[in-house]
Amino acid sequence: MPSVSLHQNAPDFSLPDFSGKPVSLLDYRGEKSVLLVFNRGFT
Amino acid sequence: MAQLRHDYSEFVARDVEVVVVGPEDASAFAAYWQKESLPFVGLPDAKHAVLKLYGQEVKLFKLGRMPAQVLIDKAGVARFVHYGHSMSDIPENAEILALVDEMSASPDPVA
Q1: Which regions of chain B does DSSP assign to beta strands (E)?
Q2: Are B20 and B45 in contact (CB under 8 A)?
């Protein structure tokens, strides 16, 4: 199963947010850190 | 999610954007964000593209997806990777915020 390794570049991705605005991991490069949270479902 | 919302200002103060990815569709995300007044970015990933890219674990016999968190620094490097082993296996915000503070103090990762 693929996974992310510590101290390696995180794989880039681009997806529209729920309002349709495109969001890419690269957008944050040099600007902000990102806490990526993989949701376990809305409860 | 409520825990993240509660501490969101702490993340913002440290230049951290919180991005939540889930398999639900855009309308489910929009409804939940509105209901819970969530301030962070929500990315519906109905095709599981990012979920697969990052290897979120699915345990069919444990009712769904395990939680996972990845902290990525400004250079795009993963500085904290946590794959939950149960539905409640989620690190405390304080733990992640402490890591962000460490990251700021030493921007170059030491493997």
Answers
A1: 16-22, 41-44, 58-59, 64-65, 68-72, 78-83
A2: no
Cβ count near B16 (within 10 Å): 24
- Here the ipTM equals 0.92
Our separate counts of H helices and E strands in chain A read 0, 3
Asked whether residue B59 carries a pLDDT value surpassing 60, the answer given is no
**Domains of chain B, each with CATH number or no CATH:** 2-104 (3.40.30.10)
**B96 Cα to chain A: minimum distance (Å):** 9
Can you point out the beta strands (E) in chain A? 14-16, 22-24, 33-38
- The number of C-alpha atoms within 13 Å of A30 and in the hemisphere containing its C-beta is 2
Chain B nearest CA to A1, separation (Å): 6
Look up the pTM and report it: 0.89
